[in-house]
Structures are given as C-alpha cells and as structure tokens.
Fold each of these.
Amino acid sequence: MQDLVTHLTAVLSYTVAAITDRKAEAPPAGTWEDALGRWDGERMAVREALRRPADTPVRSPFPHGGPITVGDWTRRLAHEFAIHRLDAESALPAPSDTRYRPEFAEDGIDEFLAFLTPRRGKPSRAGVVQASTGTRKWTVLLHPDQPPTLGEGTPDLTLTGPADDVYRALWGRPNRAEKVGDATLLEPLAAP
C-alpha cells in the first residue's frame, strides 16, 4: 500500500508542478508515516492549484501532444485515482465489486485514448484498435514512430463490452471486455 500512496503522491506533485510551473520533487523513500505526511501535503497543494480557472493553460509534462489546461489535469486526476482505487480495493481481504457508471467510464476511455495516449509516446508498430461500449466508439490508429491518433480504419483489434470493462481493459486491470483480433496491439497503448 505504501508503494501506491508514494505513486499517487508523485502524481500529485507532478500535477502541482505543471500547474504552478515549478519543478516536481520525487517522493523520497521513507517510512509509512513519511509517505502519509507527504501525501497529505501534496493533496492540499493540488487542491489549491486546481482552484485556478479550468481553461488556464499549463506546462505539459508529456513528450508529445498539444496544450494542456487546469481542466485537463482535473480530469487526468479523476481517472488516475479511480483506477488506483481498484488497485487498493484488490488488496483487501474481501475486495468490493466497484463498478463505475457508464458516463464516467466512457469519459475515462476518452481521456485515455484521446488525451493521454497521444501525449505519452510513439508505438513501434502499425495497427488499428477499436474500443466500443455499445454507446460510444473510438478508433485508434497506430503508426510506427508517431503518436497514436483517433481516426477511421478497419480494426486489427476490437475491444468491446460495458464501459467499465473497456475502461479497466485499457488500464490493464481485471475486466470482462471482449478482445477480438491481435491483442498485442494493446501493448503500445499500455498504461504507464
């Protein structure tokens, strides 16, 4: 659990750094009490940083992609913490069966495929991945050495199911989404 708290503290630190244009500090290794203290400090700092208007432009920590706003960071944090909530719950002796509302999960799919994936890196192979929830559909085009983009194409892999399951599948968490085709095409999209 300390590793999860340390990771989320780092995410908060990078968020505050991007919004306030300061250098992010990697959380130092330490005791559980140190981790909780740092977590609490960064949590308060991010609350203050996110008070800025949603359309305020901020520095991007990502290697690719366009401009980023405070609103983008708010959305990024919502989904980062939702996914890691699942991780925390999976460590419980009797994990709960948390299911995210379709609207939230679809926003998370969109945030992952339209915002995060194109900004993170360039795949080494080509392919077309289509994710579908029944009410929404995303088609991701993978081109070697170029950031992934949304577009049109015949899918080499389809990922379908309830929004919550597709959301989890994209983040590499246990899910019941159906995968048809070349499942290795999820590797270039894999969550960090």
Amino acid sequence: MATREKKSAKKPDLKSEICARIADGEPLRQICRAPGMPAWRTVYDWIEADKDFAARIARARALGFDAIAEEALEIANTPVLGEETEDDGEKVKIKTGDMLGHRKLQVETRLKLLAKWCPEKYGEKRSVDLTVNDSLAERLARARARAAG
C-alpha cells in the first residue's frame, strides 16, 4: 500500500516534468524511455482520464511545436563540419566540409512533421478562389426560368 501511495504522490511531478519536456520540443516516446518515466501508453491513459492534464499537454505541445521550429532554424544556421570518405578501390579520399545534406534532412523532417501536427500554423497556406463570373441577377433569372419550366 505504501508503494502505491508513493507512486501516486509522484504522478503530479511526473506530469509536470512530461509537460515541461514536451514544451521544450522533446517527443513523448523519447521522454518515456528515460528512467523513472511511465510508458507512453500510460501517459495517454492519463490524458484520457484527466481533462486538466489533457489541456496541459495540449498547451505544452503548442509550445513544443514552436521549440521544434526554432530548433530547425538553429540547425539551418549552424554549419556542422564532418568527413565524407570515397573509396574508389585503389585509394580512399577523405573530404572535410559542412554536412549540408544532413542538416537539410534534419530541417525538412522537422518542418514536415510540424506541417502535419499543426497545419494551421506550419502547413501550406491554401486559398479558395470565390470569383463568380455571372452576375447575381443573371443567375437568378436562369434559376427562375428553370423553375418556371
């Protein structure tokens, strides 16, 4: 019985830590792999059972999306030196330079996930053309003619 009380006493602290880490842009499954953290399915059970916690998670995710977007910008703006090796069978060439392809993949992955997770903020802007070529009077006249038979 004492161990259950300890676990339930820790739950609010765990919930706060989970929310803080999500707000920093850390994925839930990664958080749940850390020692002392509950399984990710347990967190989803808490979300279903506790409306307040669900609202806190939603706010944390919104903040986390912004953190991920800022991280993508930081990755794009920060060169990372690395080595590429080419082996043509006779000799190995080592080329040192910016790992542009790797950074591009990291940025694109984050942006695509953001567009899926929060399309209203990070998705493609879509517009609907509502231009009407006929005047309202012409359309009403045609409708009346159809109705009259």
Amino acid sequence: MRFFKKMQQFGFSQRKHWPWPATGVVLCAAAWLFFVELPAQRADNQAAQVKVRMLEAQLRAQTNVAAVHSQNLPAQLGGFDSLSLVTADLQSLATQNGLLMSDASFKPAGDNQPDARIGRVEVNARIKGAYLPLKKTLAALLATHGGLALDSLSLRRARASDIVMDIDLRFTYFYRKPS
C-alpha cells in the first residue's frame, strides 16, 4: 500500500490507472509462458514423437515377423508329447500362485481342420481361487506355450462378497502331427 501512496504523489491513482498494473501482470505471465513453459512442452513433444516412431517401427517389425511365421506354423508348434508339459505347467503355476486345481482332463478334438499337419486337443481344468492369481497364471501359461489358446473361462461365486471362486477353463492345444 505504501507503494501506491508514493505513486499518488506522481499523479498515479488506482481508480484511474488500474489497467496498467493488470496489463503488466498479464505481460509477465505471457513472458513466463513463452520462455519457460513453451520450451519444456516442446521438449516433451519431441520425446513423445521419438517414442511414437520407435513403437511404430516395432509394430511394423512384429507384423512382418508374424507374416513370415504364419507361413510355417506347424514347424513352430510342439509335438503331442509336449501336452504333458502344458498340464504340468498349469498345475505348477496354479499352485505357485495360490490356486487349487481340482480337476484337469483332455480329449482329442475333431480333426476338421484344413491343415492335416496340425492336430488339436481340448484341455479342461477346474480351479478354485481368486481372480488376480488366475490372471497371472493364465498370462504366464499362454506366454510360455505358443500352441495353447484359451477358449472359455467361467467364473462362479457362492456369494457376491466371496473372493474365492470356482473357475472352469477350456483350452485348445494345437500340436504338430508326426509326418
């Protein structure tokens, strides 16, 4: 306030000249935005553009690899004897993540596929446990075994407040038939 009293000695009045200080504040804010915030935003945008280009290149590379791999699919699949490894991994991952596997069975699926070099086996499993350990188990199992596909997942709870639920899983395991 003392500043404004001294300014009144020079003929400056707050009532008459209020736009000048407001204009000064706006100009200072604009200068701060221009010299401080705008360069930081530009640097962030450049980093984001570099990351987008890198991800696009990775995506293009994956699609090219997928196109090459799909031509020789039977060579990438395991044999029928690796089915026991899939069921053993399912059991060990379920136990490791705190799930209780009560039943597991498999049966050959109908061979009505156009490629006679690929066979299918349907794997059914009953598990009891929570959702997050189930999600972790399925992610690890599907990432480990390339020929395994999740067909259905059924979750049942006795009450809505229960954390533990009964889970029915159905997989299809694709394998390479012997030549």
